[in-house]
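Sequence, please.
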């Protein structure tokens, strides 16, 4: 089963995704893609760790190449959080270089495909960006377009897609999660 959970920042999408991953069975792995820069980043990571506490997740931090993630052979469910951080990590390298958007897309999709092939259930958290009508710099626009492309491709592949707003989820693509 492959489920995509999308929504705006602080919408409740992470809580829903965790619930789905827990229901999918164990052992379960949480793949963290956020590099905790600054106090705000560290606080967000701490919040998510506390939210997962006691739910039986082992955590793998992966800031780039998802194809390098080695899952235990009996992994039942994987929770990947999130496409927004993954897109930024892949597109904008720590050395300051910017990857071609097509290459970044291919790398992200290959990574998700790798995870899908190594677990029974994959839940991916996706960020909604770019719907605010704001004009962005060229770099930010490149990121927003990449993220939109990744999210659309994942939604097309997913068995089920849920959108979360204000803590309320709605299934926007049928499937059992």
């Amino acid at each position: 089963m492959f489920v995509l959970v999308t929504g705006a920042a602080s919408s409740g999408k992470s809580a829903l995704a965790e619930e789905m991953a827990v229901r999918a069975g164990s052992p379960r792995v949480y793949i963290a893609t956020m590099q905790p820069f600054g106090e705000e980043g560290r606080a967000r990571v701490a919040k998510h760790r506390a939210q997962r506490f006691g739910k039986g997740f082992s955590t793998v931090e992966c800031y780039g190449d998802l194809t390098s993630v080695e899952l235990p052979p009996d992994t039942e469910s994987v929770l990947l959080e999130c496409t927004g951080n993954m897109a930024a990590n892949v597109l904008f390298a720590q050395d300051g270089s910017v990857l071609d958007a097509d290459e970044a897309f291919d790398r992200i999709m290959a990574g998700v495909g790798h995870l899908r092939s190594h677990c029974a259930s994959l839940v991916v958290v996706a960020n909604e960006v770019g719907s605010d009508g704001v004009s962005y710099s060229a770099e930010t626009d490149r990121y927003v377009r990449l993220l939109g492309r990744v999210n659309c491709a994942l939604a097309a592949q997913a068995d089920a897609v849920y959108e979360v707003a204000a803590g309320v989820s709605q299934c926007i693509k049928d499937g059992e999660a």
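The longest helix spans residues 138-157.
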